Amino acid sequence: MDSNMFSSFVRILRESHVILLKNRSLMASIAILMLVLHSFLVSCKFFFLRLLLKDFAMKETRLFFTSPDSSQYTNLVTAVTADVRLLAALGWFFVLALSMASLFQAATAVLATAIAHGKGNLSFRDLLSRVFKPCKRLIITWFYVSVFDLGYLVLVSMSIFTFTVNFASPYRPTTFVYVILIPVLAFLIFLAVVWSMSVVISVLEEKSGLESIGKASQILKGLKGQGFLLNLVYGAIALMVHIWWYLVTKKKGTYDSLFLALILVNVTCLIKMSHMMAFTVFYHICMFNHGEEVELQGSLEYTKLPNEPMLIGAGAP
Question: What is the pTM for the complete model shown?
Answer without folding.
Answer: 0.81
